[in-house]
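This part of the workshop introduces the protein records we will be handling. Getting from the letters to the C-alpha cells is the skill we practise here. The record below serves as our worked example for the rest of this section.

…
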Amino acid sequence: MKDSPLICLPGQRLCLCDKVHTSGQGTYERQGYIYSQLAGYVDIVEKDGLKVIEVHSKGEQTVVPGQGDIVTAQVNIITHQYCKCFIKCVGNTVLRRPFRAVIRREDVRATDKDKVEIYKSFRPGDIILARVLPITEAHTYQLTTAENELGVVIAHSEHGHRMVPISWTEMQCPKTFVKELRKVAKVVPENVNQNLLKAKPE
C-alpha cells in the first residue's frame, strides 16, 4: 500500500480497525474491519498518531455522504418496517448520482418509537431532510429524522398540489383541503435544492 496505490472496489475489506488504523473519507467500519465505500484508490493519511484509511474516487472528486451529514432525499418505497429513499443532496451540494438509503421505523422519531407507522410519516415522492447514521452496510446508507428540524419538507397531494404543513404530524392540500399525515420538519430550509422542488415520484 505504501509503494504503489491500491485500487479497491465498494465493499472491499481493506484492513483491521484498531488503535493504529481508523476509518476516513470513502470508507466505513464494520465488525472490527475497515471497508471501502466506493471504487478508487486507497490512501493512508497520518493524523494525530493514527493512520487514517481513505478511498478517493478514480475520476472527478464527488461528494459522498458521511456520518452526521444532513442530506436531502426523495422517498421511493415504504413498508411497515422501513422507508427506502435516494439521497439527492449533501448539504448544499447536488450529487452527480443518487445514493440509496433506508430509514428504519425506530429512526423516524425521537420519542414513542414503538408507535411509529411508516405510512403515517412518509409517502413515495416526498422530499425529506435527514441525518446520516454510522454506516453498517456496504451499499446502503441509514438515515434518521429523529430531530425536530428533520422530516418531510416537500410533499404533494394525490392531485399533484404541493401541500403545506399545518402541524408536526399533518400537511394539507391548499386546493382540496385534504389533510395527510407526515413526519413534518420544523422549518423548510432555504438550502433545499430548487431542482428538487419540482421532483416527481420515481
In short: The chain is about 0% helix and 45% strand. The CA atoms of residues 122 and 182 lie 6 Å apart. The domain at 6-57 is CATH 2.40.50.100 (OB fold (Dihydrolipoamide Acetyltransferase, E2P)). Helices lie at 194-197.
